[in-house]
UniProtKB/TrEMBL annotation:
The protein's role, per its UniProt record: Removes the formyl group from the N-terminal Met of newly synthesized proteins. Requires at least a dipeptide for an efficient rate of reaction. N-terminal L-methionine is a prerequisite for activity but the enzyme has broad specificity at other positions.
EC number of the protein: 3.5.1.88
MF annotations from Gene Ontology: metal ion binding; peptide deformylase activity
Species in which this protein is naturally found: Abyssicoccus albus
NCBIfam families referenced in this protein's UniProt entry, alphabetically: pept_deformyl
Named cofactor requirement(s): Fe(2+)
The protein's name: Peptide deformylase
Amino acid sequence: MITMKEIIRDPHDTLRLKAQPVELPLNDEDRKTLHDMMDYLKRSQDDKIAEQQQLRPGVGIAAPQINISKQMIALFIKDEEGNVLLEEVLINPKIIAHSSELAYLSTGEGCLSVDEQIPGYVPRYRKVTVRSYTMDGEMVKHRFEGFEAIVAQHEIDHLNGVMFYDHINQEDPFKKVDNAVEL
């Protein structure tokens, strides 16, 4: 079971490494890791469990954040009524297409591996197509848009040793981004 204790914090070296591709078919250890990553996200979004276990809520997590330098991410996003919008694990994900239009969150981004608030807009593609593999080894393509696209890109960045704040304009963190939609 993953808790905040297992989530490594910036500036841990693993967060800046390029993660290794996962061998398919999945071995039992990688399968358990993906299950545990998704389980963390679900528990972290349950207010009662999150408070009991002192979990910081998350909508995505990448294996490097638990000190496993492999290309695996989990995404779990619910709407305001609690309906599940996205529940996916992505193995060896790669962005294969994206919109020219950008988007950013009006509140900036946060990260389970970054304890402090780092203010600023994080420009990302508004739409992305991601090719990845399922736990059964099947190649799939996902089209993400808006918030889901931002979360997917944030987690894929972790697989490339990139942190969200690397995208923030250092001279003017809240500078309006050309050709971008504020979400």
